[in-house]
Amino acid sequence: MSARGPAGAGPAAIQLSRIMRPDDANIAGNVHGGTILKMIEEAGAIISTRHCNSQSGEHCVAALARVERTDFLSPMCIGEVAHVSAEITYTSKHSVEVQVNVLSENILTGAKRVTNRATLWYVPLSLKNVDKVLEVPPIQYAWKELEEDGKKRYEEQKLERLVTKQRNGDIIFPVFNPDRQNKEPYTVGYSQSSLIHLVGPSDCTLHGFVHGGVTMKLMDEVAGIVAARHCKTNIVTASVDAINFHEKIKKGCVITISGRMTFTSNKSMEIEVFVDADPFVDEPKERYRAVSAFFTYVSLSKEGKPVPVPQLVVETEDEKRRFEDGKGRYLQTKAKRQVQMQPLTQQ
């Protein structure tokens, strides 16, 4: 199914649908957040690549540069159908903004509910030269205000990417066989986790670089392990702060995905996840930081209700600093949510 959206030009909105299988979910039957993120990215990549090739000229593939904060509004379960719709809402000279909505459908009753909304930014890379960023065909806007709002969002994400890149030198040392018996429960070191993945052809685009959705799925897996080790209950992804893709990851690289807990509120946990790449094939060079993001998880009871999480025990000055930074992000998000809810309560 497709329909033209409010921007009024470019490729019509697209929709992808797939039934959720047991291998998409955790032991409680809740679909992994990483599975949803991967579907969101696939829809965004399709519509942005189509648009960037809609005019005659050099062919390209749209590469994911950034995913804005994404909230998981409702868990999706095995047997439900995920409907992922994507639409282009803004274009700059070298980037495309895509808005994605996810609906969950119970095919037995026909009931539908919104589970996710996401905003993604893509850049078109030439098929002939992966380091060459091509120009994006402009879209036509139904109203001037839509273009102005889009430009404002573009400038904001551009500034945030620069800020994130400045702090991107932080290090997480991989932990593969930690001696957890000698670590205090609920400390950062107790739950810190890492995963190693060799990038193969099935992970990659036509360019031979990793799909953004594949990376996000692996990041969510590591964040989920950290959260589960900390609270030892069923956990689900509640939100993902902006994900910044700093550098491309090439086929043949070995990537290390590392996660550590940074903050806990009464019922949520913030986990910082970094992806570092080791290029071994064709162009050997030093390990580099490719992606970084913050994931927020909640702990659920056997009945699927949110329950309090054990408070994080911080031991070092760096851990205390990261805890306070996480607290600031938590309070800022909480304040924004309250502002958004005010118009609804006043109706």
Automatic annotation (TrEMBL):
GO molecular function terms attached to this record: carboxylic ester hydrolase activity; long-chain fatty acyl-CoA hydrolase activity
Broad enzyme group: hydrolase
Gene3D superfamilies in UniProt: Hotdog Thioesterase
SUPFAM superfamilies to which the protein is assigned, alphabetical: Thioesterase/thiol ester dehydrase-isomerase
UniProt keyword Hydrolase present: yes
Chain ranges of the HotDog ACOT-type domain: 10-128, 189-303
Coiled-coil portions: none
A Gene Ontology term for the protein's cellular component: cytosol
InterPro entries noted in UniProt: Cytosol_ACT (IPR040170), HOTDOG_ACOT (IPR033120), HotDog_dom_sf (IPR029069), Thioestr_dom (IPR006683)
PROSITE patterns attached to this UniProt entry: HOTDOG_ACOT
CDD domains reported in the protein's UniProt record: BFIT_BACH
Keywords, alphabetical: Cytoplasm, Hydrolase, Lipid metabolism, Repeat, Serine esterase
EC number: 3.1.2.2
Active site (UniProt): 26, 220
Location relative to the cell: Cytoplasm
A GO BP entry: fatty acid catabolic process
Record's protein name: palmitoyl-CoA hydrolase
PANTHER family: ACYL COENZYME A THIOESTER HYDROLASE, CYTOSOLIC ACYL COENZYME A THIOESTER HYDROLASE
